[in-house]
């Protein structure tokens, strides 16, 4: 099964992977803002701001769902990788690690990590 938005014309796979870390951070932020809105709803109800809060809640819920769908598609693509290729992709794009940190964690040289990374990207591109 192919995931439509991961078609890799013009580096689309790289773009999605680069956005992955921030996508995860945004999901956390949206959930936190939604939780805060729900907590404040009672207080603002008395001031007539409940309608605006409900609009914002709907917006955040929509953003969360859209982000979760993108996350699912990215993770589905990454699951196709095996071993150190998968580990390097996750360390780089999910955990936002530097190349030096990744080299240390996987116990490969900097240049080996880059070669493995390049091969992993090629596999992702070939799959889509």
Automatic annotation (TrEMBL):
GO MF terms held by the record: DNA-binding transcription factor activity
Segments forming domain RNA polymerase sigma-70 region: 77-126
Keyword Transcription annotated: no
Chain coiled-coil ranges: 27-87
Protein keywords: Coiled coil
UniProt entry tagged with the keyword Coiled coil: yes
Annotated GO biological process: DNA-templated transcription initiation
Gene3D superfamilies: 1.20.140.160
Superkingdom field: Bacteria
Protein name: RNA polymerase sigma-70 region 4 domain-containing protein
């Amino acid at each position: 099964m192919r995931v439509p938005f991961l078609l890799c014309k013009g580096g689309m796979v790289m773009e999605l992977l680069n956005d992955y870390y921030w996508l995860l951070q945004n999901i956390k932020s949206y959930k936190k803002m939604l939780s805060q809105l729900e907590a404040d709803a009672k207080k603002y109800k008395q001031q007539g701001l409940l309608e605006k809060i409900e609009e914002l809640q709907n917006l955040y819920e929509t953003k969360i769902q859209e982000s979760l769908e993108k996350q699912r598609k990215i993770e589905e693509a990454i699951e196709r990788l095996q071993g150190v290729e998968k580990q390097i992709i996750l360390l780089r794009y999910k955990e936002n690690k530097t190349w030096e940190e990744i080299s240390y964690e996987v116990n490969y040289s900097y240049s080996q990590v880059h070669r493995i990374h390049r091969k992993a990207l090629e596999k992702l591109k070939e799959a889509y």
